[in-house]
Amino acid sequence: MGVEIGHYALVLAFCTSLALAFLPALGLVRGRGFGTTFAPAVSLARPLAVSLCVLCFCACAMLIRAFRASDFSVLLVWQHSHSQKPPLYKIAAMWGNHEGSMLLWVFVLCLFALAMAYSQRKPSRLTLLSLSVQGCICALFLAFVLFFSNPFARVFPVPWEGEGLNPILQHPALAFHPPLLYLGYVGLSAAFSTTVAGLILDDCSREWAQKTRLWTLVAWCFLGAGITLGAFWAYEELGWGGFWFWDPVENASLMPWLLATAALHALRSYMVRQILLVWAVLLVLLAFSASLLGTFLVRSGVLMSVHSFASDPLRGLVILLCVSLLTTSALALFAWRTGGKNTKPPPSALPFFSRESAQLLNALLLSLCAGLVLLATLYPLFFEFFTNRTLSIGPPYYAVVLSPFFLFLLAVLGLLPVLGWGGSSRARIRRHLIRFAPVACGFGLAFFLLTRTSATAAIAAALGAWALLGAVKTRSAKDARGSALVHAGVGIVVIAIAGASLTDVEKFRTMREGDRVTLTGPLFSESLELQELFARRGVNYTERGARFAFVDKSRAMLSPSRRVYPPRGLETTEAAIDRSLLRDIYVTMSREKTRGKTNDSEETLSVRVQGKPLMFWVWGGALVMVLGGVLSLLSPLVTLKARRR
Amino acid sequence: MRPRRGWRRTQRLTAVVVLLACVGIGTAFVLVALRENVVFFLVPSDVVERLAEGRVGDGRIRLGGLVVEGSVARDSDSGEVRFVVTDGAARVAVRYRGIVPDLFREGQGVVATGTLQAARVEGTSSEPLPLLEAEQILAKHDEYYMPRGVEKALKKNNLWREQP
Q1: What digits encode the pLDDT tens for the residues B70-86?
Q2: pLDDT reading at A595 higher than 60
Q3: Is the pLDDT of residue A606 over 60?
Q4: pTM of the predicted protein model
């Protein structure tokens, strides 16, 4: 019964979204002649947004209910759930698959429509029109969910037991990673709608800038949190010890983040100095287009990726059509409107050493980086299409191509406290350099002497410290506190990544009980002793692992293991991680029955111990960045007018 | 004193030339980086074909195929794993030092990234096989996963069976 209610709710939601797409816009058109808006159509905007959101919520809730009740008559539940699964993961299974995750995607879209409708006491023309645009996007994707990936499809005869969720997805970080990431991806839709509405009205005013900045910032925070959580999950659960693999799907989340970051900077410049308007508009449009592209790449299965769900060519084609329709129409509108009397900013001089040129550089380089990531993400696709040969781009490409730009941006970031709006004196810059550059260089040198790895890592660490110092030095107006915190987070993350990924300390051993392994790296030296092998039963898995103790008994035991999940007989590696502020010790193991040299069936225990210096600060720095974003969301915005007073 | 018109023109020209040079160098740089880091996806038949053409040390490759049943052996002293990968037509041996991923098992799809070695090794049926020294072994999240190239090759060799 609940499943039918969910399905009906979805159909009604589609109708509602169509109404939302047309009515507010119609009200505006009708109202133009009278100088006011056409009241009946306009007053419906809010109720429509509310009912759209409620209906979508109802559909999601009914799907979750089916998952909780393990209603295997629903195809999706049967394919992706199991009666033995812990309750949290039964709920998380709702978005652990194609159909369910698309439903969640659409729900978040509606959620933002609601937020847009109530972001103002009385909806302005801009808000009404952006609601219409948002309604269009909702209708498009609701139609996709209804007609091409219906999550409520039934299966008959009803199976006894579900097939089980891919056990690798059974992890708390992954339970929350998709919703957060979607809030980020889809949050950009609100900024997109507002910008499209602004372009249609040919009115990119302060109201437009404030609204767009608000939605972009909200999305940016969620996106950052979602990406971090995804990286954290990869680190904990994949058992490779890395946290970022330049997987196409990771790239798909990184591109909107880069573009949104650039858009935020451009919007700020526009609000303070009336510059970079065209950049801001374009970047906002591109950011949402990138997240749509990401949805296409992830959900269509065109890319060979560890994330992509089973592919279905028709679905991929339909998503691609939706994506290209939205993107091209927005860009066409942009091309038509830019240079119009209201979209064109007054010309202003751009002093070389100034905040303005730093902002321009930021927009330029970040969008360039996004473009380079896009190139490498799509290159294999095009290559395969034209030559029928499959290839992939190795991670070194990204390191080589992106690091110069990032390092350059970091260098500019450190100068920020002395780069004022409208230019700053060279003496100030010189003083800042003399005071802080030696500290950063010293840090880099110390880093190099300690880790003795690559010069690139040391340079990155030095520049990270330089950016951190710059952020700490910034003691300006209230509205800059958030951004200073974000910039400090950037510095921390860069130093941590230089430590964690460029310094590789690892040992691979086959061990027996009583064996010891010693791992020596920068800032740490740890000996581990294999104490015992164990086997136990978990909630819905069996586990075979090994217990390691630190020889100096300073820290808790580590028990890496392998889990087997009965429904499909799948195995996962559970890494054991000992965290501290300076390093992580990351232990993974496997126990296999193999044919050895002497005995035909002997069990070997292979152990991989990795030392990850400063790993903790990758998460710490990312958290600081997100908190900084939240802080600037909460703090009042000081715009040009307020500053002139 | 205002700068002369000719001077301004030279200045503008210089700016354009410098900009073009930067863009050119940047593009060249990116293309070189792209080319150096391209990893071709091959199935065992492709590898054999390549070897027949005398191209061995052709950079890193990504080998995809099915792990041959009964071919996985782990040397307990060095911790090396050896196995044979097939696409139905040809076979390639893989050597890897490390922990294999969760979904790695006999009869299942696997993708190994590494370099082809000049030496040939004894396979399970005592024929010399090409050897791939792997740095990374991947199996996918989903157990129904089959590398697309392998799917094509298997279908060609009539070894494809639909997953349940």
Answers
A1: 888 877 667 788 888 88
A2: no
A3: yes
A4: 0.90
Residues 6+ apart with CB under 8 A from A214: A119, A633
Give per-residue pLDDT as tens, A300-314. 666 654 444 445 667
Q: What kind and span of H or E run contains A603?
A: strand A602-613
CB-based burial label for A236 (10 Å; 0-12, 13-18, 19+): middle
Surface-to-core class of residue A73, CB atoms within 10 Å of its CB (0-12 exposed, 13-18 middle, 19+ buried): middle
Instruction: Report how far apart, in Å, the C-alpha atoms of A183 and of each of A70, A216, A219, A537 are.
Output: 27, 11, 6, 36
Helix or strand holding residue A332 (H, E):
helix A313-337
Element (H, E) at B114: strand B109-122
Domain ranges of chain B: 1-38, 40-156
User: In chain A, where are the structural domains located?
Assistant: 1-165, 166-350+359-393, 402-503+618-644, 505-616
Q: Which CATH class is domain A505-616?
A: mainly beta
The distance of B118 to chain A (nearest Cα, Å) reads: 22
Smallest CA–CA distance, residue B62 to chain A, in Å, is 8
Please give the CATH superfamily to which domain B40-156 belongs: Nucleic acid-binding proteins (2.40.50.140)
Which residues of A lie inside 8 Å of B (Cβ-Cβ)?
A: 166, 168-169, 239, 304, 306-307, 309-310, 372, 375-376, 379, 389-397, 400-401, 508-510, 562, 568, 570-573, 588-590, 592, 594-597, 602, 604, 606, 608
Cα A81 from chain centroid? 26
Judge whether residue B148 has pLDDT over 70: no
Using a pLDDT cut of 90, give the percent of chain A over it: 40
> Which secondary-structure segment (H or E) carries B64?
strand B60-67
B102·A239 Cβ contact <8 A: yes
B82 touches chain A (CB under 8 A): no
pLDDT tens profile A176-205: 888 999 999 999 999 999 999 999 988 778
Confidence of residue A645 (pLDDT cuts 50, 70, 90): very low
Quick check: helix, strand or coil at residue A261? helix
In whole angstroms, what is the distance from residue A167 CA to residue B153 CA? 29
